[in-house]
Write a structure and sequence with these properties.
GMP Synthetase, Chain A, domain 3, 4-stranded mixed beta sheet, binds xanthosine-5'-monophosphate, 315 residues, Rossmann fold
Length: 315
C-alpha cells in the first residue's frame, strides 16, 4: 500500500519532468482519471486542461453527475460532445476487442483535436496497473484491451503521461481520499462505457435500453444498501445480451431482448465474487426492468459467476 503523503510530491515532481510545457488531461469522471487530473493540476496549474468526452455511451444523468463531481473536486474542465463519432466508429461491430480498439481510437482522435486547440502534444491519463496488466504486452496474454492502453491507435500523435500506472485500485482510492476527491468509494464505470454492456451490435436504441436497465440496477442496489439489506457491492450493473427470447405482453407474443444483472464483491477487480442477493431485491430489479422496458426486454437473468473464470464486465 502506498503512503499518499509520500506519493503526491514524488508524482508532482515526475509530472513536471514529463510535461515541459502544457498538457491535456483525459477526465472520465471516474476515480482514477479524477485523481490523475487533480495531481496534474497541482503540478502544472493553468498549464493543464481537463476534458470530459460525452461519448453517447454514458449512464443516465452522467454528464450532470460528473460535472458536479468535478466542481466538488475543484477540477476545471471542458465537456466535448462526440456521440456521433463513437456510434459511427461502432457501426456493424460485434467483436469485443474490435469494439474496444475502435473506442480507444475515437477517444484519441477527440483528444488530438482538443490538444491541437490547446497547443500541446501531451495527454495525461488515469491508467492504473490492472489496465495494462490485463491489456497484455510482451509477457502477458490479452484479457481485454482497456480503452486507455491497448486501444491506443499506432499512429497516435500524443505523448501519453500516466501518473498512476503502478497503482492498484485500493491505492488510488486512498490517494483520492487524501486529495479530497468526494465519494472515492463509489463503483467503477469502464471507460468504454455502455458499449461493453451492450453485447452484440451497439446501436443508439440498444444503448438506451442498457442505460435504463443500468439505472434500475443502481437504484435498487443503492436502496438495498440504504435499507441495510446488503453490504455495498464493488460493482453492480446490467448487460444487454446478444440473444432474443419469447415473452408475453397482454395477449401478444413478443420477441424481446434479455438482460443479465451483475453484482460483484471485490478488493481490486483482479478477482471478484458474485454477490448473494436477497430474492426480493432481484425480483424487484427484474420487475422494474421488464416493466420500464416493456415489450423491449422480456427476460432478466442473474450472473452467478466469479472472476476468474469470468471477468467482471461481459466484454
Ligand atoms: P474486468 O471486466 O476486466 O474489469 O474484470 C475489471 C474492472 O475494470 C473495469 N473495466 C475498465 N475500466 N477501461 C476502464 O477504465 C476499460 O476498458 C475497462 N474494462 C473494464 C471494470 O468495470 C471492472 O471494474
Amino acid at each position: 500500500m502506498i503512503d499518499p503523503a509520500k506519493f503526491v510530491p514524488e508524482a508532482i515532481e515526475r509530472l513536471r519532468r514529463e510535461v515541459p510545457d502544457k498538457t491535456l488531461i483525459a477526465a472520465s469522471g471516474g476515480i482514477d482519471s479524477t485523481t490523475a487530473a487533480l495531481l496534474t493540476e497541482r503540478a502544472l496549474g493553468d498549464r493543464a486542461r481537463a476534458v470530459f468526452v460525452d461519448t453517447g455511451l454514458l449512464r443516465a444523468g452522467e454528464v450532470e453527475r460528473v460535472s458536479e463531481f468535478f466542481r466538488k473536486s475543484g477540477l476545471r474542465f471542458d465537456v466535448v460532445l462526440a456521440a456521433d463519432r463513437f456510434f459511427a466508429a461502432l457501426e456493424g461491430v460485434t467483436d469485443p476487442e474490435v469494439k474496444r480498439r475502435r473506442i480507444g481510437e475515437a477517444f484519441i482522435r477527440v483528444f488530438e483535436a482538443e490538444a491541437d486547440r490547446f497547443g500541446t502534444d501531451r495527454l495525461v491519463q488515469g491508467t492504473i496497473a490492472p489496465d495494462w496488466i490485463e491489456s497484455g504486452g510482451a509477457l502477458r496474454d490479452t484479457i481485454k484491451t482497456h480503452h486507455n492502453v491497448g486501444g491506443l491507435p499506432p499512429d497516435i500523435r500524443l505523448k501519453v503521461v500516466e501518473p498512476l500506472r503502478d497503482l492498484y485500485k485500493d491505492e488510488v482510492r486512498a490517494l483520492a481520499r487524501y486529495l479530497g476527491v468526494p465519494d472515492a468509494d463509489r463503483q467503477p464505470f469502464p471507460g468504454p462505457g455502455l458499449a461493453v454492456r451492450v453485447t452484440g451490435l451497439v446501436t443508439p436504441d440498444r444503448v438506451r435500453r442498457a442505460r435504463v436497465a443500468n439505472a434500475i440496477v443502481e437504484e435498487e442496489i443503492e436502496r438495498a444498501v440504504g435499507d441495510g439489506k446488503i453490504r455495498r457491492p464493488w460493482q453492480y450493473f446490467a448487460v444487454l445480451l446478444p440473444v432474443r427470447s419469447v415473452g408475453v405482453l397482454g395477449d401478444n407474443r413478443v420477441h424481446g431482448e434479455v438482460v443479465s444483472v451483475r453484482v460483484v464483491e471485490s478488493i481490486d477487480a483482479m478477482t471478484a465474487t458474485s454477490m448473494d442477493l436477497p430474492r426480493s431485491v432481484l425480483g424487484r430489479i427484474a420487475e422494474r426492468i421488464t416493466r420500464e422496458l416493456s415489450g423491449e426486454v422480456v427476460r432478466v437473468l442473474y450472473d452467478i459467476t466469479d472472476k476468474p473464470p469470468a471477468t467482471i464486465e461481459w466484454e
